[in-house]
């Protein structure tokens, strides 16, 4: 990269440091007012619609109406989460342990954001960062750059309106490049990366502390105790939302034999089209070139993808294209993430076989992210949690609405799902405001509590001797 771009990035980071240093002195009320001002950028309906329309126009991905809903709900939910917490000064007192916790900013955050969610994801990162007293610099995908520029302009106007430093929120200038993004990663204090695995690996290798998230490829099990009609409705609602842009959309349904036929009927009642082998082959040729997804099909409707593939049975009301599958891996590409309303359907003899099928899929792609279960058996969610490599077990919910937090579950609202070591990540939870803070612990002496060896080792000695 030329010295010119390095200098440009350095100047942006320097302005962010100046703004952050000034903002860091703010009290909690000032920070909360600032967060509300930034949230209102998206929650105000006209701006939300304008940004959603531009996002679809610029990226060619998703649905305007669904993006409006996603931007609204994700921002409203995050604002709810953030209103409840302290991020300034003392945030925890534990006198019995002699520990006081104090929140401090991490400094300047570099945020890598994807083209699939060019409004919701950067907004989530901006609100979390500013809640912690940080500055943030966005590095959007090239397709989402113009949308991000408009979004940042709105954010800076909102910051000015409440008297906060406008350069708390900035973005890399156009034209965007991987070299500029890499340079940003080396200069900031924390990188929070969402998007392609190339970006995640670059973040982790940047030398800067980084939080990256893993690849989605969600599998969902429908067992013999499930309400298969409700399961089909939730899966189709999730799979069609924003034309499947979410990393949390179901990509494979593994159905226990006893309810397989009933579930297929329920899927068709929801507008899903079960493809035959000839149609499956035509779809495969349209969706993949070698091992790469065709960008023309990403986040397009089922009807559009069917038309591209010459599948005439897909009516204008078709919701999801369903492909019967039994293979896993590069030779069975439908077993991977599809970022479109296309669902792979597997048949399993029983619940244990269904779990084994999920295990095989996640060995290929998607380990660590999450797994869905439609079941009324109270013990099965924990069985999955104890055995499969997934950081979230989403029970009887539409997956893409539930995984990133919802008003009817207890997960934090987020668009960045940590996948743990299974997915090559440093975190296994939904990335939220605590990840944007340094926590200082003041430690005072407490009455001495020092056990004897016998108190700690008596059981071991009784079993194995001294």
Ordered list of secondary-structure elements with their pairings:
Layout lengths: L2 H21 L4 H16 L1 H15 L4 H20 L5 E6 L4 E7 L2 E5 L7 H12 L3 E5 L5 H17 L7 E3 L6 H10 L2 E4 L3 H8 L5 E3 L5 E5 L5 H13 L9 E7 H13 L3 E2 L2 H11 E2 L2 E2 L8 H8 L11 E4 L17 E7 L2 H14 L6 E4 L5 H8 L5 E3 L3 H4 L34 E7 L9 H12 L2
Parallel strand pairs: 3-4, 3-6, 4-5, 6-7, 8-9, 8-15, 9-14, 10-13, 13-14, 15-16
Antiparallel strand pairs: 1-2, 2-17, 11-12
Radius of gyration, CA atoms, in whole angstroms: 24 Å
What is the total domain count? 2
Helix content: 40-55%
Poorly predicted tracts of residues: none
Q: Which class best fits the helix and strand makeup?
A: alpha/beta
* Assigned CATH architecture of the largest domain: 3-Layer(aba) Sandwich
The largest β sheet comes out as: 7 strands, parallel
Structure description:
- A hairpin with a 4-residue loop joins β1 (89-94) and β2 (99-105).
- With 466 residues, this protein is an alpha/beta fold.
- The protein contains 16 helices and 17 strands.
- The protein folds into two domains: 3-213 and 431-442, Aldehyde Dehydrogenase, Chain A, domain 1, CATH 3.40.605; 218-403, Aldehyde Dehydrogenase, Chain A, domain 2 (3-Layer(aba) Sandwich), CATH 3.40.309.
- The mean pLDDT is 96.
- It is globular.
- Helices cover 43% and strands 16% of the residues.
- It has helices at 3-23, 28-43, 45-59, 64-83, 120-131, 145-161, 178-187, 197-204, 228-240, 257-269, 277-287, 302-309, 351-364, 380-387, 399-402, 453-464; strands spanning 89-94, 99-105, 108-112, 135-139, 169-171, 190-193, 210-212, 218-222, 250-256, 273-274, 288-289, 292-293, 321-324, 342-348, 371-374, 393-395, 437-443.
- Strands 10-13-14-9-8-15-16 form a seven-stranded parallel sheet, sandwiched between helices.
